[in-house]
Specification:
Low-confidence stretches: 1-16, 104-114, 224-231
Largest sheet: 11 strands, mixed
Number of strands: 18
Shape: globular
Helix content: 10-25%
Mean pLDDT: 78
Structural class: alpha+beta
Radius of gyration: 24 Å
Distance between the termini: 39 Å
Order of helices and strands: HEEEEEEEHHHEEEHHHHEEEEHHEEEHE
Strand order of the largest sheet: 11-12-13-14-15-16-17-8-9-10-18
Length: 421
Amino acid sequence: MKRIFLFILLCFAVYMHATIYQGRVVDQNGAPVSYATVYPEVAPELGTATNNDGLFSFKADLPNDSRVIISFIGYEKLTISASLLTSSEPSVFTLREQPIALEETVVAAKKSKQRNKRKQMATLLHAVYVKLADEFPDTPTRYSVVSDVRMDSEGSTWGMEQMIADIVVLPQAKRDNTDSLQFKGRYCKRFFDTQKRKQADEILAGQAIERMEKKSKEKFIRRAANAVDSGVVVHRSLFAMGNMRQDFEQAMGDLKHWTVSNESEGETVLTHTQKISKYLGCFKLTFQRHYIVDSRTYAVRRFSEHAEIKITIPFGIKLNADQLQMLNLVNMDERKIEKFRLKKVRGNVDYNTIYQRRDNHVYILEKNMHTQAFILGTKKAEIPLVVKATQRVTDLQTTNVRPLPASQITRRLSREIVEIY
């Protein structure tokens, strides 16, 4: 009992001596950046998010030489000294735009270049593949990442989830000779605008919540806010997407669907296009994978992917109110929901990977994704969905890496609900 009391006193003393770090984040036009993530490099779990005015504040006891990371999807990561955040008036920090994927017009090859002889294309692809095989390690690797997933609705972010996780990649560990990926969350926070949080809670709970007693109602809302696990799927899937080496190997023999274009600064862009059409054209999928290669060494510097999907349901599907509300959250009124019948789904995904080099090998440094989809029903009823996600590697372990215990991989991670004002 005495030890517990001393531990509480120690924690209280640390908290009392903690420093308040604060600031404001804007874009290059001076507009506030909402839901930008801010966290100490040495302790990402202490991080927070900016509010609608771009303001942030957190308490921590950091070493004098600590650095703080400010990041937002579509912008360059900003690393600053923690000492810049201790002034009485919040300092202003500007994020610069960084497109997450190449524009289609950048990588489109001219017709004359599309007529390259297959032998020349095969030689180029083989040179890149040899470099990939040489640079990408075939040993287990452990990444520590900070992962943000945001959902937008008509240009307004209604919520964001930040997860700190460990990821172990086991090369060619599966039966089909592909890599195995193990994901273990360590910390998780969900950030909500207070008004949108209220709307989301009402939708998650449904009309039945109004008939509950106050105590039961509060308990139900807390459980509902933690029940939606879609964020975990995105966190894990984002790292698993775009296995560049394996995708490249599978596409090498498909010479007629490759194009090449030369870019500035000694880079060459190799593009592979794949189209899939099934069920009499009711399902159409187009993939474009872009490999940005050093023109001299053939080393891949960056990788991006663009996917478009179109689904047509001839007779439509009637979704119930709960299903539609979970998809929609805030955009559709009750009369539209009652009449909605799912007829079409269309959307696109832009995905980008940036790499780092260590000990003559190439490892992931950052991944980000932007997904925009529309679910269309009868009478032009439409539900827009936008998901933005980014993952940044904070630590990399390349030696003595062991597989994660099954109990850690399957353990459900609790969320801390944070409301921003």
